[in-house]
């Protein structure tokens, strides 16, 4: 949790409690006591003036009380998002562990890297096409889970070597590169079907791509022609034209 952001939220909440919550509560009470007659806005402005005046000990104590109330509300609002993110991350980590334990299948694929060739020790563009092929295969079948940064056995390798090959190293650059890969090779309109998330295991980042099924055929553009892939077993297979047409008629709208 960001300490600076937390401190700012507490201070702002304290101020809001004094100059907004307190005058609002007091003016509404006074307006109700008068039988809902008179000028509420005048009562509110008068209450604001009293709150800012710090005229006596009672007023100072009321300011402290409402300031604490405002800080508490701000703290609740600030931590709500953080707690939600932590819970979502916990659920995500549990899912990843389950996928790693089950191993590769028709809905799960592991990739050691996105573009760094571990054997050759350099960038290999062919590896990017393998990832694009896998994503296309998932989209043309029932969707699936692509995890980058683990070997075929589900052992954690991390993304550090891939990070070092990017113009913008780190998670943001990695995600942008994957989305560019989908956009350039499959089509920009298919990008919403690939959701990228990062998790940390053994102090190493891994990339989880949740791929959703497409209602339209997805082609991988390679060279001067388009290729149609589907997911079969724990692999991705290309269909020739007659097979692809038959498959589309049966499985895609």
Instruction: Characterize the largest beta sheet: strand count, sense, and whether it forms a barrel.
Output: 4 strands, mixed
Query: Over all CA atoms, what is the radius of gyration?
Result: 28 Å
Query: What proportion of the residues form beta strands (DSSP E)?
Result: 15-25%
CATH class of the largest domain reads Alpha Beta
Low-confidence region ranges: none
Quick summary:
Helix 1 (3-33) crosses helix 2 (40-53) and helix 1 (3-33) packs across helix 3.
Protein described:
Pfam families: SLFN_AlbA_2. InterPro entries: Schlafen_AlbA_2_dom, Schlafen_AlbA_2_dom_sf. GO terms for molecular function: ATP binding. Keywords: ATP-binding, Membrane, Nucleotide-binding, Transmembrane, Transmembrane helix. This is ATP-binding protein. This protein has 2 domains: about 5-90, no CATH class; about 105-250, Schlafen, AAA domain (Methyltransferase, Cobalt-precorrin-4 Transmethylase, Domain 2, 2-Layer Sandwich), CATH 3.30.950. The radius of gyration is 28 Å and the shape is elongated. The strands form 3 sheets. The chain has a 4-stranded mixed β-sheet with strand order 1-4-6-5, sandwiched between helices. A 3-stranded antiparallel β-sheet has the order 7-8-9. The chain has helices at about 5-35, 40-55, 55-100, 125-140, 160-165, 170-185, 240-250; strands at about 110, 115, 120-125, 145-150, 195-200, 205-210, 220, 225-230, 235-240. Strand 5 (about 195-200) and strand 6 form a beta hairpin. By secondary structure, it is an alpha+beta fold. Helix 1 crosses helix 2 (about 40-55) and helix 1 (about 5-35) packs across helix 3 (about 55-100).
